[in-house]
Amino acid sequence: MKKSIFLLISLLATVFSCKELQTEVYNNSLLEQFPHHIKLTWKTSPENSQAISWRTRSYVSESYIEFTEATASPFFEKSIQNMKAKTDSLTSEDGLWYYHTINLENLKPNTMYSYRVGNMDLWSEWSEFKTATGQNEPFKFLYFGDVQRYIHSLGSRTLRQAVLANPDSKFMLFAGDLIHRGGLNKENWNEFFPAGGWAFQNIPTIATPGNHEHKWVAKETKEIAPLWHLNFSFPENGPIGQEGQTYFVDYNNIRVISIDTSAKITSEQREETYAWLEKVLKEFEGDWVFVTFHHAMAGLARNRPPNIRFPEIKALLEKYNVPLVFTGHEHLYARGRMGADFPVYAVSVAGPYQNAIQFSDWIERAGSSIQLYQEIHVSQSQLKYVSKTVLGDVYDSFTITKNDIGKMEFMEAENLPVESLIPTKDFETRYDKEEVETYEADKTKYLKRIKNKL
């Protein structure tokens, strides 16, 4: 009798346990049942490696990748290779998640691969990526400013339109504040990755951390949120303690340098970062160097001080003649140079949260209340920068041409459209009275200066 009661209790416990798991599974969307938030990055050389990261629900604690050289035929199962991913877990405000990552190495250059990730019966769809050629050939990539807020409803359209218009882009560069709260999934990473959807599975991402990817206590920037390193697998070639935040990627004939300007570091570590930056600028022997960090070099939002934020970095960028710097943070558009021929500083915004602009003297092209993405066209002797609205219209464009001895020349495109200088929504309630009352006079002065420059 006791044995029968024990068996009955065990059976009921198993039933309820299965029912609980089934409830957990079916209470989640189909998306969450399968591996998702899949994205490509680089941890090592883009010519012969590819990093892939994804996450799964708590009932899938192990995950694998299957990959093979891509074929037009769907019957490639005999050539598939299988590898187990490195897995970490984190309990966030929306439950326990497993985060998986793998860095495929010893791949062939200029080769397309098919891959999927998963375990047992829960696998992602097959997707493709192509390794870099390592050659000096023309290519392009995309650059986005802050996406950050209202990502699902409005930020998504910028990402999607950019990719639809540029499906052959080699990578997407994000200049920080991809989301609003880096330590949270809800309304943050749970919106950002679906906003780009399959594009993240096919086009690699390079991103620099913004202040919103760091921990926040009473609006004070703290250590980077754990979800940054769980979501992305970036190079560990930066200063000690800043691996995956401050780093560089060499793609064909260019170097992209990311600097985490929100990092909580000591003054000694800051000096080490400047020394590291000078080293990676000085040693590069390719054609073009790009630098990205989140905070614009100078404050531009109307309610922020306009001072230079990083004079030591600015001096190094000018010393090594960096052509182009990608930033965000200000939630508006600005492009210009600061007392030197180069670099050209670009400040952009992809998302709908916008700020009113202060018309600093260094700005050569401005914009507000407008969502934008940027196409960067690279060849051995020329860079072409094109900023487009979410509707695909050209908003700003210029070229940087380099002659045989390395001297660069800047040329703004002709017939650019009228600038969007509309104050942001709720302008009069969000800004101080003086900032509001002086706006029109400042705008008029700016437009007069730009007109006299032509």
What does the model show?
By secondary structure, the chain is of the alpha+beta class. The chain folds into two domains: 30-130, Purple acid phosphatase-like, N-terminal (Immunoglobulin-like, Sandwich), CATH 2.60.40.380; 139-453, Purple Acid Phosphatase, chain A, domain 2, CATH 3.60.21. The protein has helices at residues 2-27, 30-33, 151-165, 185-196, 198-202, 226-231, 267-283, 311-319, 427-430, 433-437, 439-453, and strands spanning 36-41, 50-57, 64-69, 81-84, 86-92, 95-104, 112-119, 122-123, 127-130, 139-144, 172-174, 205-207, 214-217, 220-224, 247-251, 254-259, 288-295, 324-328, 333-336, 344-347, 363-367, 372-378, 382-389, 394-402, 408-412. The strands form five sheets. Strands 12-11-10-22-23-24-25 form a seven-stranded mixed sheet. A seven-stranded mixed sheet has the order 15-16-17-18-20-19-21, covered by helices on one side. Helix 3 (151-165) packs parallel to helix 4 and helix 7 (267-283) packs parallel to helix 8. The protein is globular and about 65 Å long.
Describe the protein's topology:
Blueprint: H1 2-27, H2 30-33, E1 36-41, E2 50-57, E3 64-69, E4 81-84, E5 86-92, E6 95-104, E7 112-119, E8 122-123, E9 127-130, E10 139-144, H3 151-165, E11 172-174, H4 185-196, H5 198-202, E12 205-207, E13 214-217, E14 220-224, H6 226-231, E15 247-251, E16 254-259, H7 267-283, E17 288-295, H8 311-319, E18 324-328, E19 333-336, E20 344-347, E21 363-367, E22 372-378, E23 382-389, E24 394-402, E25 408-412, H9 427-430, H10 433-437, H11 439-453
Parallel strand pairs: 10-11, 11-12, 16-17, 17-18, 18-20
Antiparallel strand pairs: 1-2, 2-6, 3-4, 3-7, 5-6, 7-8, 7-9, 10-22, 13-14, 15-16, 19-20, 19-21, 22-23, 23-24, 24-25
Helix pairs in contact: 3-4, 7-8
